[in-house]
Amino acid sequence: MKTKLIELWKNDCEHCEATKPILDELERMGYEIERFNIETSEGEKVWQEYLDVINKYNKSQGYDVNFIYTPTLINPLSEQVMSYPDRAPTKEEIIKLLEGGE
Q: Bridge partners of 7?
């Protein structure tokens, strides 16, 4: 099994929709992707579980803390985070995150 990735997303998010086909393709390639809608209790729980990691990333990028940009992708092994306020991540960026790079 290849590296696991966590995606935090929400309804009516154009960047989440743009990321979905990339994540679907990566799943077909053997990567494990866990997806959580932050507008559900389960998704909210996962968000809160990774809040410190997300806040650390947001602060390093000059983003708001205690806020989530969607989609937010997390490599739970390396605790690296990827999210952008203005665009979806590229396939190459996601693969780099999966491989433990930033």
A: 35, 73
Segments making up each domain of the chain, as ranges: 4-98
pTM > 0.85: yes
In contact, 8 and 16? CB cutoff 8 Å: no
Whole-angstrom Cα distance, residue 69 to residue 88? 10
Q: Is 82 exposed, middle or buried (0-12, 13-18, 19+ CB in 10 A)?
A: buried
pLDDT 10s digits, 38-74: 999 999 999 999 999 999 999 999 999 999 999 999 9
CATH number of the 4-98 domain = 3.40.30.10
